[in-house]
Amino acid sequence: MNYRHAYHAGNFADVVKHAALTLVLDHLCKKETPFCVVDTHAGVGCYDLKSVEAEKTGESTDGIARLLGGAPLPSSFDSYLNALRAVNPDWPQLRFYPGSPCIARALLRPNDRLALVELHPEDVRALKREFARDPQVGVHADDAYTALKALLPPKERRGLVLIDPPFEVKDEFQRVAKGLSQALRRWPTGIYGVWYPIKDPEPVERFLGEIVNLGRPCLTSELFRYPPDDPLRFNGSGLLLVNPPWQIDDALADMLPVLANRLGAAGPCGVRWLLRNA
Ligand SMILES: C[S@@+](CC[C@H](N)C(=O)[O-])C[C@H]1O[C@@H](n2cnc3c(N)ncnc32)[C@H](O)[C@@H]1O
Fold first, then answer.
1. What is the pTM of this model?
2. In whole angstroms, what is the distance from residue 138 CA to residue 118 CA?
3. pLDDT per residue over 214-264, tens digit each?
4. pLDDT tens digits for range 84-112
5. Atom 27 of ligand 1 has which residue's CA nearest to it?
């Protein structure tokens, strides 16, 4: 486990992923009944953009700094901006970037719950510190896919499982597909979000094909930073949604061009239904 998200926090891909994540959370907040978010690869709650790691790569300059550097954003970004504001005491000065745990936490209502799973011992310690006195948040030091067996279905029977692996092992797509298949057997009606990087489109399409075979409604939202013509480059990323919330396709389709424009993306973006009527 070499991957450390602190080097990448607030970068291009994080912004695209987290802005979409807040749309799903907004949807969950529309109904009064409580929901649960399970974040299987949590990282740490919040990242200091002035840390040695963040300053070494400077990746947030082309991500969150760029998104915030222009005219006011449309209202679809309100929840994302609220999550950013919640971790930055000197807002609108940006010093800290919220990871998925702090973004989800910022949008929970008093009866909602967040379960965080993380394998790296340092990140687990950071999460336990961050959420030490928070009765709505549970931290699980475990492997993502093992933890899903214990955590699903959540008692709320409503919510999101976010699967956001580092993709540092070669068979990560197969591991996600297997984990998702097992998770869906335990909780067929949950919303599942899977983030994935796009270099060579071929393994991505093979993975998406496997997900279609699981027989649940699913769509994917992709944004390319570069034209997809170099299979060795990190060209873009996608967020696969299984059991996508009602009308999330329209919300994502409205948000993606704003992100592409603000982040200076030179490749395509769009939302694609993989299986509409399961
Ligand atoms: C891409 S980062 C997560 C970023 C975070 N979800 C966010 O959006 O802010 C991936 C995380 O997964 C953790 N990880 C790697 N393998 C894991 C596994 N098998 N189970 C749980 N966590 C794992 C890494 O330590 C790393 O913190």
1. 0.97
2. 11
3. 999 999 999 999 998 888 899 999 999 999 999 999 999 999 999 999 999
4. 999 999 999 999 999 999 999 999 999 99
5. 43
Distance between CA 106 and CA 83 in Å, rounded? Answer: 5
Most ligand 1 atoms within 8 A of CB, residue of 22, 49, 119 to mutate: 119
The count of residues in the chain is 278
- The gap from C-alpha 140 to its chain's centroid, in whole angstroms, comes to 18
Contacts of 84 (CB under 8 A, 6+ apart): 64, 68, 91, 94, 97, 98
Does the CB atom of residue 116 touch ligand 1 within 6 A?
no
CA distance 44 to 99: 7
Alpha carbon dihedral 262, 103, 169, 233, in 10-degree steps, equals 0
Helix axes 78-87, 100-107, angle to 10 degrees: 110
